[in-house]
Amino acid sequence: MDEVRILLVEDEKKIAAALKTGMEELGFHVMIAYDGAMGERFFNNYDFDLVILDINLPDINGYALSKMIRQRKRDIPILMLTALGSVEDKVEGFEAGADDYLVKPFAFKELIARIKSLLRRSIHGLPGGPVLKIADLEMNLDSKDVFRSGNKISLTAKEFQLLEYLVRNKNRVVSRADIAGKVWDIGFDTGTNVIDVYINFLRKKIDKDYPLKLIHTQVGMGYIMKET
Amino acid sequence: MDEVRILLVEDEKKIAAALKTGMEELGFHVMIAYDGAMGERFFNNYDFDLVILDINLPDINGYALSKMIRQRKRDIPILMLTALGSVEDKVEGFEAGADDYLVKPFAFKELIARIKSLLRRSIHGLPGGPVLKIADLEMNLDSKDVFRSGNKISLTAKEFQLLEYLVRNKNRVVSRADIAGKVWDIGFDTGTNVIDVYINFLRKKIDKDYPLKLIHTQVGMGYIMKET
DNA sequence: GGGTATTTTAATCGAATCTTAATTAGTTAC
DNA sequence: GTAACTAATTAAGATTCGATTAAAATACCC
Predict the structure, then answer these.
(1) Which nucleotide is nearest, taking the CA of residue A160 and each C1'?
(2) Distance separating the N- and C-terminal Cα atoms of chain A
(3) Which residues does A207 contact at the CB level (< 8 Å), separation at least 6?
(4) A217 CA to D3 C1', in Å?
(5) Which residue is nearest to nucleotide C27 (CA to C1')?
(6) Is B205's CB less than 7 Å from nucleic acid strand D?
(7) Is B87 close to A95, i.e. CB distance below 8 A?
(8) Measured by CB atoms within 10 angstroms of the end CB, which terminus of chain B is less buried, N or C?
(9) Contacts of B110 in chain A (CB under 8 A)
(10) Where are the beta strands (DSSP E) in A64-186?
């Protein structure tokens, strides 16, 4: 999730500054608007991935601003952040188009968790794009993409399965019998050496060009994937 | 938004019954599971638009169930409903894939407002026209019109269904078995190759005349739709 | 009911992938 | 240090997989 831009509309300068600092430490890019008109202007002139709205603003109130934003860009996540905690306020907030509603005072961590949950849906498509990692190796289980140090590596189906099994069991020695059972559907009584061959395929694609080797042999035991 | 089906996993029967009644009065169709295993079973056997999860369940806990649901169907909204109100609990909930987290006791109206907000976002109920997009390809689910770079493409019913499934799962490899189950109602044990044939039909209509191909084959895995 | 459009089955061809097998290299144990 | 074993590597053969085409079966429409 790179370059997430957040518009924060909040009139209490101290709170706004604190939130901005906290969020920027997490890598978000935050822009503060101190009133509704400013919020509207910013929204119209820049591109944001998410909006955080206070309700009680000096001029335009948050509900109105939310509706305006929804009209103009119906898929941007809006999170309302306010001292108004009654059920009616919340319902009104949601009806104005909010995707989430958080009552002050709140824990910063909860805010972040909710922001991430919202972004998960809107930015990188849908939630849970599961990615396995070890060192600089990444496997995307959805798209079946594999990257080493950012370079794309294309694997065949079996290679992918084997690598997935190894990475899932990283820092743990897996025997050939384990692999045979999980990746191939065989019991490993057969005198085949497919596994060795495939380990070789993987090493060529994954380790060969990199000084840091990830696949290691434990003679007499099996293979292990680790960074050290 | 017609026929919204909600899965409610909640072990306290009184609460579950009360919620079900309340929601059904609003036109939702609710199914109750009294423990995690039951929830999992229901989830696997029926189609839902939203899941409401209690955390403290007799057997499997809500976090685990949430992760399981996310893996299987990553676009369904999950709302956690629980007595655990600490920030850590909430963060854990969101990390397990929840889209919203509501602490008991709560106002029924707030629950409804949050449910509606989630449904509004989830694909089916997006306001303002159901149009799926990827790159310069657009599918209007209402009018069943399909455009590539503004040029109208006419598809047959099955072609449309298949394309819709692929586009909904863009950037994700879908296996033939997935497709067989969702687009055709078959289990893919049959040795048919309809899917391959239809992929071929789609490619001719959608990709043939354009340099940027959208339908890609992952040999041994399935098909994926992506721009790159 | 006839004719067209759509869906499905079937068969072919070529290429990608998987597997086997044999050789070379490396490791362990005595 | 050498025998015995274990693993790495390579190349070739076997098999599967997918694209494509054509034809058959089914559904649809007037």
Answers:
(1) C17
(2) 28
(3) A213, A214, A215
(4) 23
(5) A219
(6) no
(7) no
(8) C
(9) 87, 90-91
(10) 78-82, 100-103, 131-134, 137-140, 146-148, 151-153
What is the phi/psi pair of residue A204, to 5°? -60, -40
pLDDT per position in chain A (228 positions), as tens?
Answer: 558 999 999 999 999 999 999 999 999 999 999 999 999 999 999 989 999 999 988 888 889 999 999 988 777 999 999 898 899 999 999 999 999 999 989 999 999 999 999 998 775 554 445 788 999 999 999 899 999 999 999 999 999 999 999 999 999 999 999 999 999 887 766 778 899 999 999 999 999 999 999 999 999 999 999 987
State the virtual CA torsion across B33, B35, B38, B43 in degrees, nearest 10: 60
Which DSSP state fits B34? S
Place of tokens 């509004």: B120
The pair of structure tokens assigned to B217 is: 């084959």
Nearest by CB to residue B172, choosing from A113, A143, A157, is A143
The CA distances from residue A6 to A28, A79, A226, in Å, are 7, 11, 37
Q: What would the two tokens of residue B28 be?
A: 């939702």
pTM equals 0.72
Q: Do B99 and A121 touch (CB under 8 A)?
A: yes
The answer to whether A117 and B118 are in contact (CB under 8 A) is: no
Residues across chain A: 228
* Residue found by looking up tokens 């706004």 in the block: A16
- In B, minimum Cα distance to A76 occurs at B121
Q: What angle do CA B135, B138, B142 make, to 5 degrees?
A: 155
Report yes or no: A198 at the B interface, CB cutoff 8 Å: no
Handedness of CA A156, A182, B68, A113 (dihedral sign): negative
- B chain contacts of residue A74, beta-carbon cutoff 8 Å: 126-128
CB A130 within 8 A of CB A144: no
Q: Report which residue is nearest nucleotide C16 when distances run from CA to C1'.
A: B219
> Is the C-beta of residue A196 closer than 7 Å to nucleic acid chain D?
yes
**Residue pair B94/A117 in contact by the 8 Å Cβ criterion:** yes
| C-alpha–C-alpha distance, residues A214 and A207, integer Å | 7
Tell whether A117 lies on the interface with B, counting CB pairs under 8 A: yes
Two tokens, residue A87: 């059920």
The structure tokens 């939203």 sit at: B50
